[in-house]
Amino acid sequence: MRDLIQLLPDAIANQIAAGEVVQRPASVVKELMENAIDAQATYIQLIIKDAGKGIIQVIDNGSGMSETDARMCFERHATSKIRKAEDLFSIKTMGFRGEAMASIASVAQVELKTRREQDELGTLVRMEASVLKIQESIQHPVGTSITVKNLFYNIPARRNFLKSNPVEIRHILDEFQHVALAHPHIRFSFVQNEQETYQLPAEKLGKRIVDLFGKGYREQLASCEEDTSYVSIKGYVGKPEHAKKTRGEQFFFVNDRYIKNAYLNHAVMSAYERLLPEGTFPFYVLFLSIDPSHIDINVHPTKTEIKFDDERSIYAIVQAAVRKTLSIHNLIPSLDFDTNVNFNIPHTPSGQALANRSGNFSTGSGNNSNKNVQDAWKKLYEGLHDNIQAFEQQAPAIKPLLFEQQNYSSETILQSRANQRETTEFNSTNFQVIQILQKYLALSWSNGLILIDQKRAYQRILYDQFMDHLQRKNGASQQLLFPKLLYISPADQLILEEIKEDLLYLGFQLAQEDGGKYWVKGIPAGLGEEDGQSLLEGILEQVKHEASDLSKHRNEKIAQAMANRSAIRYQQKKLSAEEMNALVEQLFASSNPNSSPNGEQISRALHLQEIINLLN
Questions:
Q1: How big is the CA angle at 39 (ends 75 and 85), to the nearest 5 degrees?
Q2: Which of 587, 299, 326, 321 minimizes the C-alpha distance to 440?
Q3: pLDDT at position 137 over 60
């Protein structure tokens, strides 16, 4: 009988590895830019064509490679970053696995040009599907240029799974922003389809944030800094009044590496407790510097997930640092931060407690200074234990909540055009309605009671109206007496250009100028007190962080964003009897009175017997 287990050919093994490392064009951008940083480059240029599906090119002025290294970098597990297993716990470079170049070369056509300063000639290497095509000496400036063409050309199924160009560009912009934020001392440029999107000079972090996200961020940044012997924190947090309705502008970096960590995000959000309007999220860019021996970054091929050896201490220090910043900027009641704080920091191998850099603390408990420190600790971390315990109890549910799915109830509540199940027909003569807490409506009718969420009902009604405008392309516009000037970041300009025609159908009137300037001259009619400028910014925010491909169901996504933003003013608003009746009648006549456009339940029916059972 034949043996069944065989070694895979290198080309197939590389393609399997590429499935983890190279998920889309943005993955290639990340790997190539991180390699340029590891090469000590002071200038990095990113060139993109056809959203990275055609060409991805990264040019740097780093150290370059020798002729042998230029060829070896395409071999699996070939790396200059580690030599032994222990090196995995002292990594200070961006890359170390030795998989990126081999994976990229297995699913694309790659051309590498490089030269070291001490070499007279550089080296050209061309690879296609892991096969070496050309290697020769060439003239080339010091540094490295890597061009990746026709990504996934040899795996059509993978290429078909790529999204539309605007979606892929947004992912590329995200990776570019992560790298540019992490290294403000490096000069970057970003060119797509022969148009320059970013030209970022070497700057301090604050100026880099403004250059990336727009001038509006200049006024909302509050400097955050904390030093301990275990970890140091620096960066900026946004002022609460500038918080946005969508996630997406929260950045954590550990040793200049962008990471995703729900636990640390919870620490920041708990520091903002009672400062943010419900459903809003603050901006922050926070850098944690920690000894590599205290973290494990060899968790996932993308290296965006890491493990700390003492997450609870990290949580405490991050939360305290953000609280301190908010207090200094008079956003919460001030605390005495002049007192040294002995964080709950792990002990050194010798058994001595790690000390705060600003002072040393005894491990004994018999002196007054230590008691004062403990009192200050308790004051600073009041309620912190409960926050951590609550987070850890909910930990299994947090990851799904970051990308919450729409859950539609299968239970039929009300009669609608979209649902033909047999229920009682309603009209203005057979129900009575009252308002509760300016948030809910209660309908009394012969068979019982119906509770309606006021805001969600308005979302459904407005959504139907906006969808009608988009389909008919006839949304009315009201002219602004004084046009509003918007500064749109390059990332948001891509989204705006993609949906600009739909905005016109809704009633927006925009005029574009150079430098990302847009004049809002008209807004959809009937918005009442709604600020058209704020509404447009909110639509861009929601669409920007929409995970799905906008080319599919685009009208629905835009109408949903419009309805969500426009209905905010009804979240807690006193309604007259006429307004309540009109709301109920319009809801019953809508396309789906049961669910809001977000899939949330609008109403619940309590039949008479259920009410009797509740009271008995």
A1: 55
A2: 587
A3: yes
Instruction: Report CA-CA distances (Å) from 167 to 164, 214, 498, 543.
Output: 5, 21, 10, 11
Return the structure tokens found at 13.
């093994």
**Closest listed residue to residue 302, CA positions, set 400, 197, 174, 213:** 174
Beta strands in 86-178 (DSSP E): 109-115, 122-128, 131-138, 143-149
* Stated pTM of the model: 0.68
Q: Which two tokens stand for residue 490?
A: 């390059």
**Residue closest to 237 by CA, chosen among 261, 205, 197, 214:** 205
Share of the chain residues as helix, strand and coil, in percent rounded to the nearest 5? 40, 25, 40
Q: What is the pLDDT of residue 446?
A: 73
Segment (H or E) for 63: none
HEC profile for 301-312?
A: CCCCCCEECCHH
- SS3 of residue 202 by DSSP: coil
Q: CA-to-CA distance for 56 and 24, rounded, in angstroms?
A: 11
Sheet holding 221-227, edge to edge: 221-227, 231-238, 284-290, 250-254, 257-259
CA pair distance 257, 295, nearest whole angstrom: 12
* Encoded amino acid at 112, one letter: L
Closest CA to 410 of 606, 598, 601, 607: 601
Which residue, among 609, 444, 473, 493, has the nearest Cα to 197 in the 3D structure? Answer: 493
- The set of residues, in sequence order, having a beta carbon less than 8 Å from that of 333 and lying 6+ positions away, is 327
> What is the token pair recorded at 77?
């597990």
Least confident of 37-41, 201-205, 315-319, 406-410: 406-410
Q: Per-residue pLDDT averaged across 130-155, rounded?
A: 94
Q: Judging by DSSP bridges, how do beta strands 122-128 and 109-115 pair with one another?
A: antiparallel
Note the pLDDT tens digit of each residue in 285-303.
Answer: 999 999 888 887 755 555 6
Provide the 3-class DSSP secondary structure of residue 86: helix
For the chain, what's the residue count?
A: 616
Residue 227 is inside which H or E element, if any? strand 221-227
Residue 336 pLDDT exceeds 90: no
CA-based R_g, the chain, Å: 29
344-357 per-position pLDDT tens digit: 444 444 334 333 43
CA 602 to CA 593: how far, in whole Å?
7
User: Which of 561, 546, 516 lies closest to 164 in space, CA to CA?
Assistant: 546
Tokens of 586: 């319009």
Please tell me whether residue 604 adopts helix, strand or coil conformation: strand
Closest by Cα among 522, 524, 525, 529 to 570:
529
Question: Helices 554-566 and 532-544: crossing angle, nearest 10°?
Answer: 130
User: What is the C-alpha to C-alpha distance for residues 103 and 76, in angstroms, rounded to an integer?
Assistant: 8
Cβ neighbors of 512 (< 8 A, separation 6 or more) are: 518, 519
The structure tokens listed for 150 are 């026709």
Contact predicate 300/251, CB 8 Å: no
Handedness of CA 337, 342, 343, 348 (dihedral sign): positive
